[in-house]
Amino acid sequence: MRPLPGPPTPVGFTSIPQSMPNQLSKDLYPQADAGPPVFEWRSALEAVPADIFVFDATRRLILAHVCSPSLQRMGEIKVDMTCCEMFWKAQGESQCVVDRALKSGTKAEFELTVGGGEQLPFVVIVQPLFDNGDATASGVLVTARDISDLRHAEAEVIVHKSFMSSIADRSPDEIYALNKGGRITWVNQRAERDNPLAAQGQRIIDFIAPESQAALLDGMKRAFAGQEIKIEIRATRTDENHRDVEAHTSPLWKEGEVEGVLLFLRDITERKRAEALASQSDKLRAVGELAAGVAHNLNNSLTVIKGRSQLMEMRTTDETTLKSLRVINDAVEDGSKTLRRILEFARRDSIHRFDPVELDDLVMSSIEIAWPKWQRKSPDEQIQVKPECTGPIYVKGDLTELREVVLNLVFNAVDAMPKGGVLEVGTRVDGDHGCFWVADTGCGMSAETIERIFEPFFTTKGDKGTGLGLSASHGIISRHGGEIVTFSRPGEGTRFEVRLPINT
Fold first, then answer.
1. Contact (CB, 8 A) for 498 and 436
2. Computed from CA positions of residues 309, 311, 313, 316, in that sequence, does the dihedral angle turn out positive or negative?
3. Is residue 1 one of the residues assigned to a domain?
4. CATH of the domain at 468
5. How would DSSP label each residue in 80-130?
6. 421-430 and 383-388 strand pairing
C-alpha cells in the first residue's frame, strides 16, 4: 500500500450522507424511525481503541474513525476514497487486501508499517461483511491498531534480556537453572565451557561426586523452601577426575512461588591446592624450627661429652680405657654429623652449590644400595627390577640429596609390594629437563591419598612409617628447581616421576 495523499490534516469521525442508497450504510446509520440514533453508533465506535474503516462492495470508503495520531498526520481521509488510495498492500501480496476480502470472503490479519520518515508498526485486520446471510460480501471492515508502544516495550525487554544474559555469561561462576526434578533447564556460557556434558534435560546430580551428592540435594531441598545455601562440594570433570567447587543454591521465584533453583558453581580447586601447599609449608617450617632447636641443644651436649672424653684421653695411659674413649669420640662425631644433616633439613633456604649429576649412575647406584631391602624376602615375595636407562643425562644437583630421594622412592615402592612384584626404574630426556622414575606394581593409592602424600607426618604405613620421607624428597626436588609427579590408582600400582633442569 502507498502513503495517504494530501497535506497533514487532522481527521476525526467521517460518515456518509444519509441519502446514499446503500444497504450497508442503512445498517450502520439507520433512519430515525428505524432504530437507534446515529450518535449512539458514533459513541460506540469512538470508544474502540483502534482506527476503523468500512468499505462498500465498490471498495469505496463509507465510514472512517481515526484515533491514532500517526494516521491523522498522514493526510486527509475522505468518504468515497477507494481502498487503494489509502493503504499499502500487505507484504508479499500483489492484490489489495480489501479487494481480496471481498472476493474470498475470508478474514485476514497482518502487520505493516505506516509513515514517511517515522515508520510505525500497525496490526491490520480485514473482515468481510455480509447482509442477511448472503454468500457474497457486501462490504469490508478494516481495523488498524498502532503497536509502536508494544514494539518499543518488546525492544526494551530484548535489550534488558540481552544485558542480563551478558552479565550471566560473563560471570566467573557456572550458572545452572534447575526444575523441581533437579534437571537442567538453562546454563550460561561458563557452564557450557567448563562442563560441556551438562546439557538441558540432564540431572545436575550426575555431574557431582558421589560423596557430595547428599549435600547438594539437601541444598536444593532448602532452596525450594525459599532459603539460600552455600556449601563446598566436589564435582566431576569430563576426564572423570574431581574438582572442588563452591556451590550456592538460590530459589527461582515466579508469581510468588518457587518454580526452580539457580545453582552457582565456582571452581576452587586451585585455591584449595594453594591452601594445602601453604599448610604443608607451615608444617615444614614448624618441623624445621623444631629440628633446629633440638639439634642446637644436642650439639651443645655432644660438645661437652666430646670435650670431657678428649680430656680424659689425654690423662689416661690405660689401653682399655683409651679404646673406650676413642669409641665415645667416634660416636660423638657420628652424632654431630647426624645433627648437621638435621640442620641442613631445617635450613631449606640455604644456598647450595649444585654440580653435574648423571641420572643413570644415580638411579643404578641407588638400586645397589637398596638391594638388601628385598634380598631378605622369601622366594614367593621377590622383587624383580626392570631398569630402562637411555644413556648419560646430566642434571644440576646435589648427589647426596638426590640419592636420598631415589632411595625414599625405592623403599616406598618395595613396601607397597609385600607379596613381591615388579620395580621399574628409568631415565629419559624431556625437553630441557632430565627425568627419572620409580614405578611399582603394588597396591596403588586413591586420589585422596595422593593429595596428601607430601604432607609432613602423613603416612599410610601406620607405626612403621614416619611420614617424612616423601615430604623431605619433595623439599629437595623443589630446592633443585624441579618437580615430582605421582600417577597411581588403587590396585594398579604407583609411578613417581622426577623432572630436573639439565646441566648446560
1. yes
2. negative
3. no
4. 3.30.565.10
5. T-BGGGT-PPPTT-SS-HHHHHHHH---EEEEEEE-SSS-EEEEEEEEEE-
6. parallel
Considering the domain architecture, whether residues 465 and 366 belong to the same structural domain is answered as: yes
List 435's β-bridge partners, or say none.
428, 499
Cα separation, 228 vs 248, in Å, equals 7
Last residue of a domain, one of 300, 323, 346: 346
d(CA 363, CA 413): 14
The C-alpha cell that represents 100 in the structure block = 481480496
Cα dihedral across residues 297, 303, 304, 306: positive or negative: positive
Chain centroid, CA 89 distance in Å: 52
Could you give phi then psi for residue 19, rounded to 5 degrees?
A: -80, -10
Angle, vertex CA 296, rays to CA 294 and CA 297, nearest 5:
65
Q: How many domains does the chain have?
A: 4
Enter the DSSP assignment of 255: T
Domain that holds residue 398: 355-501
pLDDT tops 70 at residue 466: no
Q: Are 154 and 162 in contact (CB under 8 A)?
A: no
Q: Count CB neighbours of 13 within 10 A.
A: 13
The mean pLDDT value for 443-447 works out to: 88
DSSP classification of residue 382:
P
Same domain, 318 and 208: no
Compute the distance between CA of residue 215 and CA of residue 227 in angstroms, rounded to an integer.
15
pLDDT in tens, 131-184: 777 778 888 888 888 888 888 888 888 888 777 777 777 788 889 999 989 999
CATH number at residue 70: 3.30.450.20
- Could you identify the residue written with the cell 653435574? 356
Quote the pTM value.
Answer: 0.45
- Rounded distance between C-alpha atoms, residue 345 and residue 452, angstroms: 20
Asked if residue 335 and residue 376 are part of one domain, the reply reads no
Single-letter code of the amino acid located at 476:
I
- Whether 22 and 108 have beta carbons less than 8 Å apart is answered as no
CB count, 10 Å around CB of 51? 23
Q: Quick check: is 155 in a domain?
A: no
Whole-number Å distance between alpha carbons of 229 and 223: 7
> Which of 237, 267, 297 is a domain's end point?
267
